[in-house]
Each structure stands twice: as C-alpha cells, then as structure tokens.
Amino acid sequence: MKLKQGDSQISKLIALETERQKNTLQMIPSENHCSPAVREALGSILTDKYAEGYPGKRYYGGNQFIDKVESLCIERAKELFNTEHVNVQPHSGSPANAAVYVATCQPGDTIMGLALPMGGHLTHGTKVSFSGKFFNSVQYGVDEKTHLINYDELAKLVQSHKPKLMWVGATAYPRIFDWAKLGEIADSVGAYLAADIAHIAGLVAGKAHPNPVPFVHIVTTTTHKTLRGPRGGMIMVTKKGIEKDPELPKKIDKAVFPGLQGGPHENAIAAIAVCLKEAATPAFKKYAAQIVKNAKALASELKKYDFNLVSGGTDNHLLLVDLRNKNITGAEAQDLLESAGITINKNSIPYDPAGPFKPSGMRLGTPAITTRSMKESEMKKIAGWINQVILNPNSAGRVSAEIRKFCKKFPLPK
Ligand SMILES: *Cc1c(COP(=O)(O)O)cnc(C)c1O
C-alpha cells in the first residue's frame, strides 16, 4: 500500500514539508538537498535486513548482497578521501564521534576540543554531552580579535594538558583549518588527532578545502551536510593513524559494533554509497567550488550593507554574522527571516556577551541553495532581501512572495 492510502496524515505532512523546502531558501549551513537517487536507495528494501557485524563476518545469514553494498560504500569512501580504512556504520555524526572515544580513550582521560560557543561541536567535550561528562575535557577557543584558531596558544595549551585525544572540527568556523600545523601540535604530545569534517566533507571531497587525511590519525564526518547524502556518519583511519597505532582500524570497528551499536542501517549505507559516487564526479567538484564562490559573494554583499562577519568573511560554505550593530538578536533574526522565506539559524558568536540562549549572531550557508543551481548573481539578490527584512520587518510579507516566485526558477534536485 502506498503511503497516501496507508497513512494520509504523514503523507500530507511530507507534502507540506516538500512545499516548504521548494518555496523557501534553505540556508542553514548543515543542510542540503540530496538527490532522488540517494533517497531511492534510502527508501529501499535494504531497511528490512539485519547485518550485525562487517562484510564477510556477519552474525546473520542472507547477507550476500548486503555485504557487496557495504563493501562498495567502503571502497568508494577510501578512494574519495584517499584513506586506508573506513567504517560506514555510524548512525550519524555524534555516534561516529562517540566511537572514536570508545576506541582511543578510557573514561577520565584528558581530551581537547573547540568550545561549543566558539564554533565547536557538542561531542568535542561540552559539559552537557557524554564527551564532557565522562572525560576530562579541556576546551580551546578562537582568538578574540581575529576569530581564528591561534595555533601558538593551542600548542601551549596542548603542552600543558597533554590530551589523549584532540578534536579539530567545527559547526561555525568560516575559515580553513591548517591541518599540517595541527598535526605537529598533536604529535608534540603523542595525542590522537581526530578531524571532524562533518560540515566540510563535501568541500574536502570536491577539493574546495584541504583534506586532513595526510596529517591526522582519524577523520569523522556526517554524510548529509555538504557531502549531500542521507543522514549518516563515517569514521576514517588514515595511514598516519595506522602508523601510530596498527590496531586502530580494529579498535574503531569494535567501538562501533559491538561497542555502541547493533545492526547497521544498510539502506542508509547504500544511500551513502550513491552519494559517494556522485561526489567523485567532475560535476560535484564544480558544485563544491560554487558553494565557496557563493558564500564569498554573499559575504561581500552583506558587508556592503554593514553586516559584521565573524573573522571578516569566509573561506568555506558558511557565514557567521555578528548582529549587535543591527539591534536585533539572533533569535529575532531567525524568526523574521523565516517569515520572509529564508531559513537560517541563531548562533553564538565568539565571546558572545549575550549567552547561548539569546545569542548575538546568525549562521547561514550556501550548500542547499547551490544545489538548486544558484550562483553569485542570486547571492546578490538574497543579500538584498536579508538586508531589507532586517532593516524593515514590515517588508517580510512582500519579500516572502518574491522569494516564492524566485524559487520556481531553482527547483529541488530531480
Ligand atoms: C553536525 C555535526 C556533528 C554531528 O552530527 P549529527 O549527525 O547531528 O549527530 C558532529 N560534528 C560536527 C562538527 C558537526 O557539524
């Protein structure tokens, strides 16, 4: 039975969400629109199968085709990111990171990560997360003036705390990471260095951001952000990681299953395989480059309207805007822009005086609108709309109508 007949309530809600996505601009930088091919694999019959274990070593029978699916996914990931070992089973980014702790640390060990209010992720040692509860978490920040990681300060902090595991990765850092320098810093105390490229995986795959693989031991990622796949996670172990600890691939695999998870979501793994094939094409490389071009165009337009950008601009897919000179909070901007058909999110800015519940910033990005084939000239329009709505909240209704019309020229992927 089709969904429409079987469950009209859910069917209607999906139709409404589809219309929302079509008629408005999705500018939350962690979001994207995956291809119908990815969604077809995700919605496939593979969801019915139990496959605890790994290809060739399963606890259940009937996995001859599932094994091929998962192996293909692993091979594609290894090739795309140029790494030695990949686990494609983590249900999402946070479970992938949890597995890295299980593989490399004991409870109480010292770990380091970029603080959440400075652009880091919950799983990098925030107090409310398991990572801050079960480990001795030391958090680093960004420089108060430049908003960049101060590598000299970080090196000192690492020397004094000697972490077992160090995370580098962010949810709201608009600049490039210097992986080589970070590798040296971690090596100076023998720490495991994990690059969490959840946000930028698509940029790395498309060569629009340097690949951390040569410089770090472990790379974790989500598959649904710039990489444009289904919701999911992956953990990679690099050649450098295997040189540091030959058992690391085995430790990672054991941490995922049976350490943290049971049966893998093979439908999601098939969809990840499809997205990895897409991400290896010249078209995807162009897409990744266009994401960055669009973000830079949006940044320069917003600056003309006197918006203050954290770090002064962007090198990747996202912008963090300090709204204090606009007399509007991040939450108000989020609601106002949503009413105008632009979905962004409120976000803390580094050293935010307002605290995490009423942050002073907004975060926006170009992955999803670039998937819809928008280019620099469209960024100009969007910056104009953002400015109008924030200057004059009464214009939201008119802008929303204009955006609805504009969106018809930029359909979701077919
Ligand atoms: C999104 C993100 C995650 C977590 O991903 P979920 O799939 O939401 O659990 C982890 N790390 C970073 C840096 C992220 O941006």
TrEMBL record:
PANTHER family from the UniProt entry: SERINE HYDROXYMETHYLTRANSFERASE (PTHR11680), SERINE HYDROXYMETHYLTRANSFERASE 1 (PTHR11680:SF35)
Q: Which CDD domains match?
A: SHMT
What is its subcellular localisation? Cytoplasm
Where is each Serine hydroxymethyltransferase-like domain found?
A: 3-386
Show the catalytic activity. Answer: (6R)-5,10-methylene-5,6,7,8-tetrahydrofolate + glycine + H2O = (6S)-5,6,7,8-tetrahydrofolate + L-serine
Root EC class: transferase
Marked site, Plays an important role in substrate specificity, at H224
A GO molecular-function descriptor: pyridoxal phosphate binding
Q: What is this protein called?
A: Serine hydroxymethyltransferase
Give binding positions for (6S)-5,6,7,8-tetrahydrofolate. L116, G120, H121, L122
Taxonomy of the source species: Bacteria, Candidatus Staskawicziibacteriota
This protein's assembly is summarised as: Homodimer.
Q: Which NCBIfam families match?
A: PRK00011.1 (NF000586)
Concerning Gene3D superfamilies, the annotation shows: Aspartate Aminotransferase, domain 1, Type I PLP-dependent aspartate aminotransferase-like (Major domain)
Organism of origin: Candidatus Staskawiczbacteria bacterium RIFCSPHIGHO2_01_FULL_39_25
